[in-house]
Amino acid sequence: MFVNFRRIRKCQCVQLMTTCLVLSVVMVCWEQLDNNVVNHVKSYSYRYLVNRFTYINKSLTISREQARSFSSFHYLLDHPEKCSNEDVLLLLFVKTSPDNIERRNAIRSTWGNETYIKNVLGVTVKVVFALGAIQTKKEEPLWSKRSGVGFQDQLIQEDRVYGDLVQQDFLDSFHNLTLKLILQFHWMHNRCAHARFFMTADDDIFIHMPNLVSYLQDVSSKGITDFWIGRVHRGAPPIRSKDSKYYVPFEMYQWFSYPDYTAGAGYVVSSDVADRIYHATLTLNASLYIDDVFMGICANAIGVSPQEHVYFSGEGKAPYHPCIYNQMMTSHGHVEDIYDLWKTATHPQVKQSTSGLMGRLYCTAVKMALLCKPSYTNTYPCKAAFL
Which residues form the signal peptide (predicted)? Predict the structure, then answer.
C-alpha cells in the first residue's frame, strides 16, 4: 500500500489554515461571545451545578446602620391614613417619574380608578404612585437631594387633587429604582400592613383589574402564603457589557447568576412575603440598582421563590384580541392606547364571546396562532394558549 505524503501534508495545511481562521474569528468576536453566550453558560452552571446562593446573601449582608442609608430619606409627599380603617385587598404601587403626569391621569381614569374598583368589583384596592425628587441638572450626583421648586409645586397641587403621591427626597433616576422599591415595602409596613396583597408596577403597564381582583380573591380565600407571582426570570446572568443600560460591574455583583426574580413591570406578593421582604431590606446592601433583581435577592434571603403566571407579561405587549383579554393580567408598554384598551378589554361582550365549549375551542385556536410563534416576543408563553 502506497501513502501519498504530499496529499497528507496538503490536508494538514488546510486544517491548520481553517483552525487559524476559526481562532481569528473567535478572537475578534470574543467580547460579544463572552457577553451573550459564555455568561449564560456560567450562569446556568452556577445555578444548577453549584447553586450556592447562600454566598450571595452573606456577601450582601451589612449592618442595620449601613442599610439605613438606603431607607432614611424624608417624605416630601405622604398619606399615612391612606389605608386606615379599611379592608384592603391589594396595595398597588405604581413606579412613576415626576414628569409623567399624563400616564398617572390615564391610570386614574382606567384600571387604577379606586371608585370603579370599589363600586363595580366590590373590593378595596389602594393605588399609590411612588416617586423620588425632581432632577434639575444632569451634573447633579445620584444621591443629590435638590429638587426643582416649580415642578415640585405642580406635584403638590396634583397630590392635593388626587391624594395618591408618595415621594421621598432621593433623586428620581434609573439608578435609584432600588431605593424606590425599598420605599414601597417600607411604606406598606408602616402605613398599610393589613393589606392582603402588595403589587408593584410600571406606569406604562396595563392591568386587567377585574381579572386580577377575581384571581386574588380566590387566592385569599384559600389562605395561601409565600405567594409571589409574575413573569419569572430564572438563571439570568449579570450583564457585563458597559454599553448596556443594565450593566453591572463585577465589584457590585461578583456572582455568575442572579437568584430567580420576576420582571419589574408588574408582580404580586402576599402580605406575609411583603413583611419579610421589608425586614430583609434592613440588612442587605441595596447599591445594586436593578430593582427587580434586588427583589430576587431579598426573596432568596427569606427563602421565597417566584411562581410563573403565564398571563403576567414581561417587557412585551400582549396581542390585542378578546380571547387574550379574557385571561389577561398585565401587559407592558401601554401609554397612548390605554383608554381604548381599558374600554375594549373590560367590555362584557368579551366574557360572552369566549365562554362555552365553542368559545373555549375558538380561543384556544386563536391563542395558539397569536402566542405559539418561533420568534421570542417576551409576552405570554405558548402554554398560555391551553389554559
Answer: 1-31
- 10-residue block means of pLDDT along the chain (387 residues)? 53 65 52 48 51 75 95 97 96 97 98 98 98 71 48 96 98 97 98 98 98 98 96 92 92 91 96 98 96 96 95 92 96 95 96 92 95 80 92
CA distance 186 to 75: 12
292 touches 246 (CB < 8 A): no
CB under 8 Å to 125, separation ≥6 — which residues? Answer: 88, 89, 90, 91, 92, 114, 117, 118, 209, 213
Measured CA to CA, the distance from residue 363 to residue 333 in angstroms comes to 24
Where along the chain do its domains lie? 1-43, 66-308, 322-386
Buried b (16+ CB within 10 A) or exposed e, 75-110: ebbbbeebbeeeebbbbbbbbbbbebeebbebbbeb
For the entire predicted model, the pTM comes to: 0.85
